[in-house]
Amino acid sequence: MTLAILGGLKKLFACDGPVVIYSASGTGAWEAALVNTLSPGDRVLMFETGHFAALWRKIADKLGLAVDFVPGDWRSGVDAAEVESRLKQDRDHAIKAVLVVHNETSTGVTSRIPAIRQAIDRASHPALLMVDAISSLASIDYRHSEWGVDVTVAGSQKGMMLPPGLSFNAIGDKAQAASKQARLPRSYWSWDEMLASNRQGYFPYTPATNLLYGLHEAIEMLMEEGLANVFARHDRHAEATRRSARAWGLEILCRNPAEYSSALTALMMPDGHDADAFRREVLARYDMSLGMGLGRLAGRVFRIGHLGFFNDLTLCGTLCGVEMGLAASRVPHQRGGVDAALEYLQGKATTASETENKRRVA
Ligand code: PLP
Questions:
Q1: How far, in Å, CA of 158 to CA of 174, rounded?
Q2: Is 155 in the pocket of ligand 1 (CB under 6 A)?
Q3: Ligand 1 within 6 A of 129 CB?
């Protein structure tokens, strides 16, 4: 079963090299990516896209890495021009890695990884590219090898539709070579023992067998639907959600439409209204838990998740709960958000090929 899972994971990550599985939440896989490739005092370049970028940065700090943390407004993705200019200035190649969160779960903003790869290449810089795809993998188009990513970090509890408890590193050749020189201490997270055991379909320590059974099934489900269709489903639900938001008159946190997330949408509360009071009301009345604003966005936004095991009816139920909750909480809004979503969903059965065309144009 493990060998089948490891083969299936390669399809999900779209990677040629190996993927390792940890019995840990995503945070463990963040740490694993760093300790396997870097040495004490190494410089890394990171971008403040939101709460999760800030948390990954904290780990890098604690491990003794020197972090160049580019400030951000928590409403935008990574600026590829900034990546290029920072790397061009780093003439002696002190920066060893560029660390990016693909889909910022705290903001609903998706950074464009191919543009970041091109920026690194334009600067002719050898830094590794590491990407957190925790809330994008198996929901939003992601291609580890084609996009030239060296390490991809992911977790089980989002697009893979599983409980929390598994996390992953997809490892490219350059990252494997870097791991031979890397001097940060590592034991549990070490790729070497894991890769050696995985070759025979085993693990160097007790794996989370129960979750592996679930992962095996999740991969089957995703393959049965087809990844292109999975991505198209998420794109369509995200667009329907944004149409609701516009009809309600609520502002979408993500500033740039090219960076809208297909996994979740964060909406801003009108001034003078507390997002957490609204979320409490929705939970109490309809037993529906909306995502809270994290970090500096606490109380100012709420998040609608539309990823994973999700269909038109679950989306419509969610949007109904939000619209009824806005009225019950006396949050200023216009009615008709659910209608706007329905109209779109009924008239627009987006196909995978349409989504693919849209992406090519973008
Ligand atoms: N990165 C992103 C983008 C996340 O959404 C999360 C959790 O939601 C994490 C990292 C941290 O993962 P975990 O909470 O599984 O340790």
A1: 28
A2: yes
A3: no
CA 259 / ligand 1 centre spacing (Å): 19
CATH topology of domain 2-224: Aspartate Aminotransferase; domain 2 (3.40.640)
Instruction: Calculate how far, in angstroms, residue 110's C-alpha sits from the geometric centre of ligand 1.
Output: 15
Does ligand 1 come within 6 angstroms of the Cβ of 325? no
Report the percentage of the chain scoring pLDDT > 70: 96
Phi, psi of 304 (to 5 degrees): -100, 115
Report the alpha-carbon distance of residue 5 to residue 325 in Å, rounded. Answer: 41
SS3 27: helix
List the chain domain ranges: 2-224, 227-361
Identify the residue whose C-alpha is closest to ligand 1 atom 9: 26
User: What's the CA-to-centroid distance between 52 and ligand 1, angstroms?
Assistant: 7
pLDDT value at residue 160: 98
Helix H or strand E segment including 110? strand 109-110
| pLDDT digit string, tens, across residues 304-335 | 999 999 999 999 999 999 999 999 999 999 99
* Ligand 1 contact, 170 CB (< 6 A): no
* Ligand 1 within 6 A of CB of 134: yes
Q: What's the average model confidence in pLDDT over 337-350? A: 88
Helices assigned H by DSSP within 38-167: 51-62, 80-89, 113-122
Take residue 70 and report the two structure tokens written for it: 């580019």
Quickly name the fold that domain 227-361 has. Answer: Aspartate Aminotransferase, domain 1 (3.90.1150)
Q: What is the pLDDT of residues 187-234, one digit of tens each?
A: 999 999 999 999 999 999 999 999 999 999 999 999 999 999 999 999
Nearest residue (by CA) to ligand 1, atom 13, is 26
CA of 104 to the centre of ligand 1 (A): 9
